[in-house]
Amino acid sequence: YLGLGTVVMRTHAETGVNLSYLKQSGEPDGDAGHPYTGVDRFGRIVDQRWINSSNTNLDRNQYGYDRAGNRLFKDNMLMSDLSEQYAYDALGQLTDYQQGTPTSAVTRTQSWDLDALGNWNTVTTDSVEMTREHNAQNEITNIGETTTITYDANGNLTTDENDFQFRWDAWNRLVQVRDASNAVVATYGRDALGRRITVEEGETITDRYFSSPWQLLEESIDGSTVTRHVWSPVYVDALVLRDRDTDGNGTLDERLYPLQDANWNVTALVSASGTVVERYSYDPYGQVTVRDASGDAIAGSARDWVFLHQGGEQIAAGDYEFRNRAYSPSLGRWLTNDPIGFDAGDNNWYRYEGNDPGNRVDPEGLQYGLPPGIPYLPVKPKPQYTYSHPLEFANGIKFVNELKEKLKECTKNLSKKDRDFAMSEINRFLQIITTTSQYQSFLGANNNCWKWREIIDHKYYRLPIAPGFSYNSNVNWEYKYIGFSETHTLGHSAISITICGEVYYFDDGWWGSFFKEKDIPWYVKPLKIP
Fold it and tell me: Tell me: the pLDDT tens digits for 369-422?
């Protein structure tokens, strides 16, 4: 551990293959003389390696970032032709990608032209351009001039670009996939929570058993266990190992350990003896290329491996399921609307991870966020901070109504579309503000208000400015203790918004949850954080 709970090494006794963010023998110290060379001062992964007992790299990737925190490159230190570079627009959406080494051989390129809501107008792969058209609900209507995509009345995809057909139940859950000839590929049974507890493929019915976070624990056919999975506590989709019955004799005779990169993509499988048996590479949106141990592309997995892009499970038609929704890596978008709608923080309910899959994860299929970076394993109960100030209930409702009325007044002369957009933004913002709980500080701050503010910044990161309403990020103050000369330089932290030209502040309750400039204590002054 680094400190009480930041995991910087995970060991696997059976294989001798370990995940490490520590410098190895003979390597220089970090810039502050520390051994944690796999992580930068902001907690981002910069050098991730899976090493065996001889300190030989079985998988190693190095990462670089721009000043806004966007990942600029992923250097594959074993196979340079699988290295990657990325470029973004002003909203942090991915616009350009290339695989290979910029100074020598580029093996693959992709670029995207996006509309105002993040739909792909065009995607160009290795100089081949493909256009798309979308309707007012952000559903794809056409790809190129010949391919038609269809949806049902609830916004669920019913036919994709490869003529796979999708059937949905009354709760918009995927229950069947058919191929272009209308033959059934797979039928899914769901429990009350939406988990796929049965999979019927041909004459075979597989029963599936889950943990409470929807991690697949075991699969059985006719009462005989065919797979068993063990998961790590560092992240919900961090898989430790899978045991499998390869010949149907009732014995779990194959054990494989997956290696995962900084975005939880499974990049390799290691046998119990510590030998790499299969590798995987991906385009940014998760289309997988299966490779043999030496890195050469092969037709498909010889190990029947299904946990791939960001740890998601691959299902029929090559799509992935991330708990509450199915996702198409070829379309680069969800197959259904977001079940939580605007509460997810995106006005396009089909957009995948804000068109920023190299910097985001969405294991629930509901709301994307930053990958956890160096995993933090809780070692003791951690407090949760929510609005608890006694003034909140009395004054909070009045304050919220004031915000909404002010926004209505200054947008009354705008179009209905702009007025609705502004109101949806303020409603979404207030929902985030009043329901956020804080489990862990991204930047390591100890102050509760800073922790709370960082979570809000994270949830509201890079979202559009609505007419009459803008999110101003964070504001900080320092102050002297009354009667003492000591300056409390991390005195208080909050966030601010502007509605119709007036600035409002929100905090974790320390200064009253909601306040204006006139409410700021006289003895504080703004603190600028470099």
Answer: 777 666 544 433 333 333 333 334 334 556 667 777 888 888 888 888 888 888
Q: pLDDT by residue (tens digit) across 469-485?
A: 776 666 777 654 433 33
Please, what is the angle between helix 416-435 and helix 391-410, to 10°? 160
What pLDDT is stored for residue 435 in this prediction?
66
Of residues 153 and 470, the one with the higher pLDDT is 153
Using an 8 Å Cβ cutoff, are 377 and 234 in contact?
yes
Residue 35's Cβ-count burial label (10 Å; 0-12, 13-18, 19+) is middle
pLDDT number for residue 295: 96
Compute the distance between CA of residue 71 and CA of residue 360 in angstroms, rounded to an integer.
10
Name the one residue in this structure whose structure tokens are 């391919």: 147
Please state, as a whole number, how many other Cβ atoms lie within 10 Å of the Cβ of residue 350.
Answer: 27
Tell me how far the alpha carbon of residue 100 is from its chain's centroid.
24
At 65, is the secondary structure helix, strand, or coil? strand
Tens of pLDDT, residues 9-25: 999 999 999 999 999 88
CA–CA distance, 272 with 261 (Å, rounded to integer): 20
In 3D space, the residue among 177, 223, 222, 224 whose CA is nearest the CA of residue 196 turns out to be: 177
| Contact partners, residue 278, CB within 8 Å, separation at least 6 | 268, 269, 290, 291, 292, 293, 301, 302, 303, 305
Beta-carbon contacts of 332 under 8 Å, excluding residues fewer than 6 positions away, are 120, 123, 285, 352, 355
> Both tokens of residue 281?
């590479």
What DSSP string runs through 283-310? -TT--EEEE-TTS-B-SS-TT---B-GG
**Averaged pLDDT for residues 496-505:** 82
Cα-based distances in Å from 26 to 52, 75, 77, 209, 426? 17, 21, 18, 46, 54
Other beta carbons within 10 Å of 127: 7
Q: Which CB contacts under 8 angstroms, 24+ apart, belong to 128-133?
A: none
Asked whether residue 142 carries a pLDDT value surpassing 50, the answer given is yes
* Nearest alpha carbon to residue 92 among 70, 65, 109, 120: 70
Q: Which of 60, 55, 73 is nearest to 17 (CA)?
A: 55
Structure tokens at 391: 């003034």
Structure tokens at 438: 């804080």
CA distance 459 to 432: 8
